[in-house]
Amino acid sequence: MTTTADRNAPAPRAFKVIGTRPIRHDGYDKVTGRAKYGADVQMAGMLYGAVLRSPHAHARIVKIDTSKAEAMPGVHAVVTSKDFPATIQPYEARETLGDPNVISENSMARAKVLYRGHALAAVAADSQHIAQEALARIAVEYAVLPAVLDVREAMKPGAPQLHEHLESGNIAKHSQFKGGDLAAGFKQADITVELEFTTQPVHQGYIEPHNSTALWGQDGNLTVWTSTQGAFVVRAQTAAMLNLPQSRVRVIPMEIGGGFGGKIPVYLDAVAALLSQKTRRPVKLVMSRREVFEGTGPAAGTYMRVKMGATKQGKITAAEAYFAFAAGAFPGSPVGSAMNTGIAPYKVDNFQIDGYDVVVNKPRVAAYRAPGSPQGAYAIEQVVDALAKKLGMDPMEFRLKNVTRTGDRAVTGVVFPSIGTEEVERAIASHPHYKSKLTGKNRGRGVSMGYWGNAGMASSVTINVNADGAISLVSGSVDIGGTRPAVAMQAAEILGITAQDVHPSVGDTDSVGYTGVTGGSRTAFATGMAAIKAAEEIIRLLKGRVALLWETQPDVVDFQDGVFISRKNPKDTMTFKQIAGKMSSTGGPVTASAQVDATKFIGPSAAGMIVDVEVDPETGKVTILRCTAFQDVGKAAHPSYVEGQIQGGTVQGIGWALNEEYYFSKDGTMTNSSFLDYRIPTALDLPMIEAVLIEYPNPGHPFGLRGVGESSLIPPMAAVANAIESAIGVRVTHLPMNPGEVLSAVQKKSKAE
Predict the structure, then answer these.
(1) 250-279: string of b/e by CB count within 10 Å (b at 16+)?
(2) What are the distances in angstroms from CA 411 to CA 179, 344, 350?
(3) Are 513 and 677 in contact (CB under 8 A)?
(4) How many of the other CB atoms lie within 10 Å of CB of 111?
(5) 733-to-188, 346, 378, 607, 722 alpha-carbon distances in Å
(6) Strand 563-566, strand 458-465: pairing
(7) What are φ and ψ of residue 752, in 5° steps?
């Protein structure tokens, strides 16, 4: 279902390719198994690597003895942190999304292991079996230290400290946003609601494990084949960790079996490179599922407090939020995103938001679709719902009374650009799902909103025109959700050809210009803009070729819908395909490269959700009955893939709401490190999810596109929580809201009554 908002929006533009649903270019290879993923890399003389990981959550490394492993037949190399450079050269932070010193220490522990699963040695051998046996022969002497796993415990004075250089114990950073007069705002309020919330780490749910194959050549150049969301990030981080010039590192991105933010960090690439340097042979490392859970980054667990006040008329007068995010073993949680986006759907003049980035003895967290925002919305949207209930006001009416509009200021002070929050809220309020009656015992309906600012970053594209009128399009953006065809379709729209006439491919770091990560909901938007720019340059070049044939000047040649037309003599026409067939006789190949830095043209995305649930008060089981997801998409380049993004994010959110968590024992051991025990939703757990596309064009993009990959994950947890409260009158404030947690909340309410 697609709707077009009309509030101050420009008239819908007619497109021939944008908005259609062609078969994706890489579809056949992926469904037939021909597509090559990271674990598929094979080459002559390849060795197989394995990584030794800590059995302790916190311990000093007293001694590592690798001699017995090195003496084994079939073992060719062993590396530890001693093989990494002691000092790392600084580099431009924008390219790398992280401190290389932290990334290096997370890749291979130095003085201490900081979580169970922390890597501290690796071997390369003739087979995976020999490599695993060699790990067992590495002797490590530990001095076990007390571990701290809970964010609140980690913040207390005297808690076991992970990093001696942190001045505030385990608090790596405290940030604050303030606006207006908080005390005066609460004084104006007729009602207030204050609630506490806790959430646990959750996995992104990608199917393909992390992998890397490295070949350190005799010429000193390093080539890495890996599944990643950003080849240039891998290049920059790996080069930094190894003190190599970036020009000496070539990264070839393979197809990627899911990422959702979790495939942005680097874990194995420098390790594989060092093993290859020692052996002068290619070395492949592939994580087991357990290693993925124990040694890579989940979404952050949190402790949050939110207090909000409102007048009897439904105007929010003040908001106070306290967000403490567990970063894992190293600083860098997405608490800033929770602070930026939590109250973004609402205009609040008086506010104070405090955020704490806290280290604990768990794996370092990674991005997960709109990182930080789902946790923040889980807290904020429940308090908003509770305010509406306390006022006896319809929850969407209450939200519309406080809606953020274009030109309002965010908590950071930045003015919101063109934003469709009101359009999304009105679409929810008028939707048949929202207006329908929900009957039956212990059934409830919940709504929630979400906001994501989207990212811009740099992208590069090269287009080559073929003699048959088709084009090849090389970009630096890895495809993780249909971005390859979405970018191709934008070039096709400019050139007046079909999507099938575009042959898109993903280049390596030596074959295409710098391109930021596939993440932040930026790829179809920013890389699409680069494709548009390159296509426009192709048209300019071909106008010169056409003018040469017509013996006229290029400035009298127009181009429209794939046809060149002479303004002097309108009868003179030539199609794109016709002039492509004459390249040899008019000057040779036609190619164009373009790059953009799209930071100034971002269009943020608002999302919302309606969900109906049934709760069994005797078992605590929650069943999802109906779910409708809404999102401002600007303009859907390929509606099927946009709908898929929304449905996928909603499914992940429902799993986060009801089932998913990293479960740790007291000693820091993750006890559910497999997809058998870490339960993600299946088709049996879900109804059909209806995706409603709100098309409120982004004026910063030629076709109106907004990023769509992240916002859909933000509303589900709070919407399900609000639905549970509607069903049984109990507000659950801990994720996941599994049967045990629901029953606990019911029992607490009974005792209180």
Answers:
(1) bbbbbbbbebbbbbbbbbbbbbbbbbbbbb
(2) 7, 8, 10
(3) no
(4) 11
(5) 27, 21, 8, 22, 10
(6) unpaired
(7) -65, -35
Encoding tokens for residue 190? 């007729």
The answer to whether 701 and 529 have CB atoms below 8 angstroms apart is yes
| Contact by Cβ (8 Å): 113, 29 | no
Strand partners, 6: none
Strand locations in 260-336, DSSP E? 283-286, 302-310, 316-328
Q: Are 705 and 596 in contact (CB under 8 A)?
A: no
In sequence order, what are the residues at sequence separation of 6 or more whose Cβ sits closer than 8 angstroms to the Cβ of residue 121? 51, 52, 64, 66, 78, 79, 80, 108, 135, 138, 140
455, 638 Cβ separation under 8 angstroms: no
Other Cβ atoms less than 10 A from the Cβ of 218: the count is 6
Rounded to a whole number, what is the largest CA-CA distance in the chain? 91
- Residue identified by tokens 């009897």 is 312
For the sheet containing 443-452, what is the strand order? 2-3, 689-694, 622-632, 605-615, 443-452
* Separation in Å, CA 46 to CA 96, 188, 215: 29, 70, 9
Lowest mean per-residue pLDDT among 61-75, 349-363, 391-405, 595-609: 595-609
Q: How confident is the model at residue 11 (pLDDT cuts 50, 70, 90)?
A: low
3-state secondary structure of 631: strand
The C-alpha atoms of residue 434 and residue 446 are separated, in whole angstroms, by 9
Over residues 243-252, the mean pLDDT reads: 96
Given a cut of 50, is residue 489 above it in pLDDT? yes
* Token digits of residue 387: 């305010």
- Of 221, 231, 223, 241, which is closest to residue 89 (Cα–Cα)? 241
Mean pLDDT of 69-89: 94
First to last CA, the chain: 45
Contact of 564 with 577, CB cutoff 8 Å: no
Query: Strands, DSSP E only, in 34-73?
Result: 47-53, 59-65
Alpha carbon distance 477, 508 (integer Å)? 10
- What type of residue is 37? Y
Euclidean distance between CA atoms 564 and 571, whole angstroms: 11
pLDDT, tens digit, 9 for 90 and up, residues 418-429: 999 999 999 999
> Mean pLDDT for the chain?
95
CA gap 209, 640 in Å, rounded: 27
Which of 662, 714, 649 has the alpha carbon at shortest distance from 299? 662
- The SS3 assignment for 66 reads coil
Domains of the chain from N-terminus onward? 49-145+218-283 (3.90.1170.50), 302-454+602-752 (3.30.365.10), 456-600 (3.30.365.10)
66 by Cβ neighbours in 10 Å (0-12 / 13-18 / 19+) ranks as buried
- CA–CA distance, 477 with 102 (Å, rounded to integer): 25
What stretch of H or E contains 199? strand 191-199
